[in-house]
Amino acid sequence: MSRNRTIDELEEQSELNFQNYLKEYGLVKFPIIGDGNCLFQSLSHQLEGNQGNRRWYRSMTIDYMVMFPDLFSCLLMDNDRFQVSLDMYLEYIAEDGRWGGNFEILALAEVFQVNIYVFHENCQRIKIGSQPDNDDDPFNSIFIAYSRS
């Protein structure tokens, strides 16, 4: 019993540390439904104020990857142990509930011409996108916080 309490306390402390880390950047973590669509729901929330258009953001991601197959095919084929065609990958990621990762974040950053900053509770923030930093433009960046809770 005390071991479980200790694990719970550690998880609570980890979450508190992560929230404090986000505060350093003036950010607050907003709860997003964790059903495999969280990347697309978080984009919908940030750009529209609600999580309702996840399917549209997923579709925009796939459309961009189809338009620039050389970029994404090259990334998918980079690992000798795991090779998958872009068509197979896009078919997989098109399904509702499929978790979006770095490929999808890169595509979304390019589609919307923004930088996407990914905050993770165990890592430094990561910038994905090629836009110049512009503090005068509040629409220049999107912020995603990834955590277990």
What does it look like?
The chain is mainly alpha-helical and 149 residues long. The protein has a single domain, classed as Cathepsin B, Chain A, CATH 3.90.70. It has six helices and three strands. Strands 2-1-3 form a three-stranded mixed sheet. Strand 1 and strand 2 form a beta hairpin. The radius of gyration is 17 Å and the shape is globular. The mean pLDDT is 86.
Count of extended strands: 3
Shape: globular
Using the coordinates above, name the CATH class. Alpha Beta
The domain count comes to: 1
- What's the gyration radius in Å? 17 Å
Strand content is: 5-15%
What is the terminal-to-terminal distance? 22 Å
Order of helices and strands: HHHHHHEEE
- State the low-pLDDT regions, or none: none
The profile of the biggest β sheet is:
3 strands, mixed
Q: What is the CATH architecture descriptor?
A: Alpha-Beta Complex
Mean pLDDT: 86
What structural category characterises the helix and strand content? Answer: mainly alpha
Please tally the helical runs, counting DSSP H or I stretches of 4 or more residues.
Answer: 6
Strand order across the biggest sheet?
2-1-3
Which range best describes the helical content: under 10%, 10-25%, 25-40%, 40-55%, 55-70% or over 70%? Answer: 40-55%
CATH topology: Cathepsin B, Chain A
Labels describing this entry:
single chain; 149 residues; mainly alpha; Cathepsin B, Chain A; 49% helix
Summarize the structure.
49% of the residues lie in helices and 10% in strands. The protein is mostly helical. It has one domain (35-146): Cathepsin B, Chain A (Alpha-Beta Complex), CATH 3.90.70.80.
